[in-house]
Structure formats: structure tokens, C-alpha cells
Amino acid sequence: MEDFNNKVLGLASAALDRTDRAILTFTSHESLPKPIACKIGCHYCCFNHPVVTPPEALLIGHHIEQTFMDHEKQGLIHRIKHVVDVTKDKTPDEIALIRYELPCIFLKDGMCMVYKVRPVVCRTCTSIDAEHCKNVFESRDHMARLRCYHHIRDIFQRVQKNLVNQCMEMGCQSDLLFMAEAIRDYFKIPNATEAWLQGKRIFTGYFC
Description:
The chain is mainly α and 208 residues long. It has one domain. It has helices at 2-27, 54-67, 70-87, 92-97, 120-123, 130-139, 150-169, 179-186, 192-197; strands at 51-52, 107-108, 111-112, 177-178. The strands form two sheets. A two-stranded antiparallel ribbon has the order 1-4. A two-stranded antiparallel ribbon has the order 2-3.
């Protein structure tokens, strides 16, 4: 069992490390016109329904098993149920319209409960104007675009695509997944990591 975990967790961790290094390399350029404005307690982008790859979901699930206390797990189950109920039968576009009603299942007191293993999509969601993020959130303007460096979004696209391709090469489920459903499914399947490596389709909350 430990070998299965190490293989998958290593795959996901390596992708997260590549993401962090690429962002650091880009943001360390002295020629950038503005610094990244994101800081502790700024969580407007955390009202969303994040999409993750299977290795990222498995890494987060493992992290929950290893670090969450029982009451934290119970609270997480409640938040997952709420998100699943609110988004049931809705398309991605319809979900985007109500993102302001969807705090991430891991957002607690303005902080991320899984920050150490947060997925690529969260690591690359950056802004150069925190006040603009605040205004967009408070106005509920779903057409507004956050002010960010497109190069960092390109990092997200490359890393995510590479993870999906690796899953396919391994003969494992490679669907992009909604976070809430993915974590729900992780705890429904005994030895989820092993089952995924064996080619079983263990996740049902696909992004399409």
C-alpha cells in the first residue's frame, strides 16, 4: 500500500514543485511592472469550484487522512455535501455564475486547510491588483477578469496538461475533476490510490 501511495503522491508533488519553481522564476524578474498582490487573508479567488487532476485529488485525500482531526473531517463532509447539492445538474458555465456562493471546501477562517498540497489551479491563480479582486467579488460581476500575468496561467495549462498526459500513459483515469466530488469519491473507495493505479475509474465528478 505504501508503494502505491509513494508513486502517486510523488507524481503529484513533483508537479506542484515544478509549478512553484516556474512561478518563482517568473516573478523574480526585476522587469515585472507589478508584483503579485496575493497575501495571507486575501481569499476572493477561493470562492470557486476548483478543477483538479486525479493525482492532485489523491494527494489531497491522503493529506486529509494524515493531518485532519475527526471534527475537521466531519466539517469537510458537511461542506462537500453543500457544494454538491448546490451544483447538482449544473453546467460549468452555470456554476461559474454562482461561484460567489461556493466557498472552497477547504476555506476556513479565510485560510486554506490544505495549503501545503493545494492544487496547481490554486497555485497559479494570482493577481497584481488585490483591490480589483475585492471589487469584482463584492459586485458579483461574473464577466470581469482578474488582473494577472498570463504567463502564470500558461504555467497552469502546461503543468495540468502534463499531469493528464502522464495519467493516460499510465493507463489510469485522467479526467479533470471538480474538487468537492473528487474528495467525496476518494473517501468512498477503499484504498483509492491503489484502485486508481490499477486503472479503475474511481472519480465521478468530471469537468466537461
